[in-house]
Amino acid sequence: MKENLNIGIITGKKLTDALLCEALTKKFPNIKIVQYKIPFNMWIPWIWKRIIKMGCIVLCGHIFLSIYLRIQRKIELFHKKPLWLKYTNVTPAWKELNKKKEICLSEKALIKKIRGLDVIILADSFRLSHKFFRKTKVPCLQLVWGLAPSYMGDSAGFWAFASHNKQHVGISIIERFAQFNKIRIIKQRIIETGHQEDLRSIKIKQVIKMAEILPEIIERYFNKETVPRQQTTEIICRIFQAPTLSTYLHFLKFRKINTLPHYSYNDIPCTLITAK
């Protein structure tokens, strides 16, 4: 294995991202932390596509959920009882991590920033286009918040729990290729859940487990002595969206969702690479 790996992570600005960055920084002190911050004018086409596909009501429901969760976090911080402290005693040094963080405002700048790295970790990748994966020459490991390929997307773990498929509440690390819909599953873990989980508690448990296994997985990824013979299988990847506020409040009241809403997921044809 290469002694001094050059690692990069494309991340957001949430506390869960900070927990991941903290774990990786301990193992790889020279890690490059990059936040891809899209200019406002580039959000407009994305929002318009969401409106056409799902309608204004669903989009507003997602926005209201985001506001609801933000208010929850603010109240917890005001009372000095942030939710993550129920599950871990690690408090990320976000201010220190922010000093290391570099911001990119375009995919072109992002590709330049990660050039020369040995691997890039995609903690926040939903904004990246197919073109990014075709142009980048760096191996990409994407963090998936569910058991791929049946549960993918930022809220996949929540939907698995809410629909009583607890055995699918987990995490995956997958390798992305230049052909966007081609993936290889590197590692998966099931997450233990209780009876009173919600969207945030599930995500925190997922991130804690991901932070625990990710540094070792990266080392193993570069410690391959031989490349096994490979085969490809055509599959369907199910990408889950966040719930709307009304759906989420319904779940909190009844603790289950019997039927997945029409907007909750997209099925995308993918090619899965596995060893023979």
Would you kindly provide a brief summary of this structure?
By secondary structure, the chain is of the alpha/beta class. It has 9 helices and 9 strands.
**Rg from alpha-carbon coordinates:** 19 Å
**Contiguous uncertain segments of 5+ residues:** none
How much helical structure, as a percent, in the residues? Answer: 40-55%
Q: Return the string of H and E elements.
A: EHEHHHEHEHEHEEHEHE
Question: So, the CATH homologous superfamily?
Answer: Formyl transferase, N-terminal domain
* Overall strand count: 9
Principal-axes shape call: globular
Give the strand order of the largest sheet, numbering strands 1, 2, ... along the chain.
3-2-1-4-5-6-7-9-8
What does this structure look like?
The mean pLDDT is 86. This protein starts with 6 loop residues before the first strand and ends with a strand. Strands 3-2-1-4-5-6-7-9-8 form a 9-stranded mixed β-sheet, with helices on both faces. The protein is built from 9 helices and 9 strands. The protein has one domain (7-275): 3-Layer(aba) Sandwich (Rossmann fold), CATH 3.40.50.170. It has 276 residues and is α/β, with parallel strands linked by helices. It is 41% helix and 22% strand. The protein has helices at 15-27, 40-54, 56-78, 94-100, 107-114, 130-135, 156-162, 199-221, 245-254; strands at residues 7-11, 32-36, 102-104, 119-122, 140-144, 170-176, 182-190, 230-240, 265-275. α2 (40-54) crosses α3. It is globular and about 50 Å long.
